[in-house]
Automatic annotation (TrEMBL):
The lineage of its organism: Bacteria, Bacillati, Actinomycetota, Actinomycetes, Kitasatosporales. InterPro entries: DUF4442, HotDog_dom_sf. This is DUF4442 domain-containing protein. SUPFAM superfamilies: Thioesterase/thiol ester dehydrase-isomerase (SSF54637). CDD domains: PaaI_thioesterase (cd03443).
Amino acid sequence: MSETLPNIGEMLLATVPMARTLNLEFVEATAERAVVRLPDQSEYHNHVGGPHAGAMFTLGESASGAIVIGAFGDQLSRAVPLAVRAEIDYKKLAMGPVTATAELGRPVAEVVAELDAGRRPEFPVHVAIRRADEAVTAELRIIWTLRPNA
């Protein structure tokens, strides 16, 4: 699917209240890559003045959701994308605005072939969160599935 930012970003902002709450900005959202920005907002700071760990996790998970919709949006009539599990590694202190970049860890065609075969495929999405100086402040690995509709 080659849908671009306005459709995917606007859809996620309309359907995911937490993305709106954090004022996430969907910069890019395609089947190849998703980029989402968390502005610097004092109401979501932690005890050291940077974005709270929970806000950073939500940023990364939202970027992963954007690429999943970009890659598998054409499968939504027959399957629901769901995050299965996730892990995050906080690498460096994040200060100011941060940006998450998500990439799929498996080829789209391979995942769809599993779905076509009647299986419930799982696939990783890798996300790097960077601060303005491009230093990686966190990395996420989120495992998603496409759950076939009953």
